[in-house]
# Entry
Amino acid sequence: MKRVAILLCVLLVTPRAEATAPVRQLNVGSKSFPESLILGEMVAQLAKSPSVEPRHKETKGLGGTRVLWEALRKGDIDVYPEYTGTISEEILSGKGGRGEDDIRKALAAFDIRMSQPLGFNNTYVIAMKEEAAARLDIRTISNLRQHPELRFGFSNEFLQRGDGWPSLKRAYDLPQRDVRGMEHTLGFLALENGDIDVMELYSTEGKIRRHRLSLLDDDRKHFPDYHAVLLYRADLQARMPEAVQSFLRLEGTIREPDMRELNARVELDHEREARVAADFLAERLAVQTAPELDSAVDRILAQTGRHLLLVIVSLTAAVVVAVPLGVIAARRPKTGQAVLGVASLVQTIPSLALLVLLMSVPFLGLGFWTAVVALFLYSLLPIIRNTYAGLHDIAPSLRESAAALGLPPLARLRLVELPIAARSILAGIKTSAVINVGTATLGGLIGAGGYGQAIFTGLTLQNTTMVLEGAVPAAVMALLVQGIFELAERVVVPRGLRLHAAA
# Structure
């Protein structure tokens, strides 16, 4: 009996012990270029343990510095790879000094910590095609002053950064006026096609050799050092000390040639960044990891579910709000003009700008709900406008007949006016739904998932197959949505009205 009692005690206590050690989630972020994706994957794989579950799939490729920095400050992510020059010049706007100790003190004011350098300096370089540079005898950035006709193509972030084009132009007194902004990856294609003559690069990019580029000497030492580091939240040391200890093993382990080779494997050989990261960790740190390498089918299915959820949630909320607003607009002309004006104004805000603005809202931040709110706002105008138009265009004689029958206002709206306007209202909802399917791809830039994640990752890696993984299903979904609403019209719109419209 004594042994039985002891066994029962063990069985009762064991589940409680497991319950007191829940798995904690570590949110790892990265920017939308291969090197950052690889480093983010290294962090995630090193930190994985029975008590820590890293999350990188949904929070990788999140765009530029500001998006990642704000996400880190707000706690949407816990750690991401960054560069000392970017921190001092862009994040701290030159007010934190360029020395590592000064940078650490400045970051501490934001409750952010910085690791020791990972081992390589990935500075900015200005590049041209080798044959063009040789023909014009351009070896340094200063030589560009003698060629004002050259066309520059820089990433949109570089055009705005404190250490980017504005300060580069001042430092070298460059006269060029044909300066275009574009996605960094597309700059290589523009250079190959002859659409631009000069672009900015990172010194560790694997594409330098393939595109036969000449790197111009920064003869005035304009660009600071960009030593790769990890930025992480100060409270992470208390919350997940074992995870911090694990990913800090990367300090001083990655040399510049190593990083260039890793980038080339992803950029040129189209290997998965998870596999490249795992191979490096096994070779350099003797850490064996099991990266999650899902198939294309698995990725498409997961992205379809997420994309569909984004569209359904945002569109449902828009219908619930927009149809009543359309009714109010039709009943009260002055109020209606104000409602339509506000909805039209929202529609003019660029999608990416709206996403960034919404990310700054305290209760939104990074991810799914920010994308839902943006899609909701973009869905309002077509539904409000079509509801207003459908009710406004009802013949006065029909309204008078309904009133003569003694129907109260709400009954007239429900039984007469809305059925007559149903065709127009449904057309507005259909328009919003199709727009939603396309616009939802931008959610991939802020960690909302969906088809946009494959599209933007594919663009970053110049992997056409991956781009098609997102673009083709998105187009198919838009066509299916169109067809579903065509069928829904037969159910929602009264048969007599459909026959009248067909005639």
